[in-house]
Description:
3-stranded antiparallel sheet, alpha/beta, binds 3'-phosphate-adenosine-5'-diphosphate, 342 residues, 4-stranded parallel sheet
Amino acid sequence: MASPSTFPENSDASVTILNEDQPKKPFNNIISTLPTERGWGTKHVVGYQGFWFPDYAPPAIISLQRHFKSIPNQTLLASHPKSGTTWLKALVFAITNQNNCSSDDANHPLLDKNPHELVPVLEFYAKVNPENPNPDLPIVATHIPYSSLPKPLVDSDSKIVYVARNPNDVLISYWLFSLKLRSKELPPLSLDVAYEAFCNGVSPYGSYWDHVLGYWNASLQFPEKVLFLNYDELKENGSQHVKRLADFLGHPFSPEQEEQGVVEKIISLCSFETLSNLEVNKTGVHSNGKRYVQNDVFFRKGKVGDWKNYLSKEMAEHLNGIVVEKFKGSGLKPFVLSSSTS
Ligand code: PAP
């Protein structure tokens, strides 16, 4: 995508803010009463409905809760940030568009558009369309916790796919992302401060465990509506989980397609290696409605276990211990602290 005119030429900023004040106005009275703590990429995280959010999110959530109208057969992709959103967007787009474009088509939209351009995030869309906060598109995404989703969405026939990732990699990926995208007037956040906040559940979209458990419990209660995927397992056994995903979405692969290697072609098209090496994802930008964001910030290493390069074994074990304790009794298998990166 060509750089929009408002994106500064030769800028090394990863984000350009388009209009900071406009969307907050209708909700200022509510927002000003909410508790705040130190933010990561933004000045504050704001406590709202049992979670902590970057300060831009609560107005968008309120707008979604007031004005969201469901669209038939829409699919919602949900995740805690840095858990595989970009990957899931690409996979679901490729699976559900098989009839329009095969994954080896040289003109496949994923080859010249970043997945975030193809699948918008509801809370960003809501910021610029506060009274009509649902794009007329078949696939949308969100980081909003299950308990704060708009009711018409939960009650509709929309399917929800959630992707979770091990907490240590989520923490490191999010911390590094926040350093890149932080408002330039904010001092860099140290890893020690980020780690402490994450362990205390006071990180953006946290607590991590309540976010994961909300969707996990919904997937147990409404298995036809909510599918729970795991980034680490997708890495380990892509074909099994991509088939599960396609079945769930009502786009199962036929035996002929499986024989022709369609599953593997989709996995290859959506892989970190393919996507991160595309020109659009190396040099392009996309607008999320409010900001222009460089596409390359969504592709760093794409590995399981990179936390080892940043956290001590004790730090990782402590965080994992908290999560194991929180997951106890839920039936959710705790993430294994992998011994090697993959
Ligand atoms: P978001 O929540 O801001 O949209 P999200 O895509 O969930 O971000 O997370 C980005 C992480 O997914 C990055 O992980 P890392 O920092 O540990 O490297 C990014 O590299 C990784 N990622 C992006 N695309 C893919 C992909 N196709 N396959 C696997 N991992 C990917």
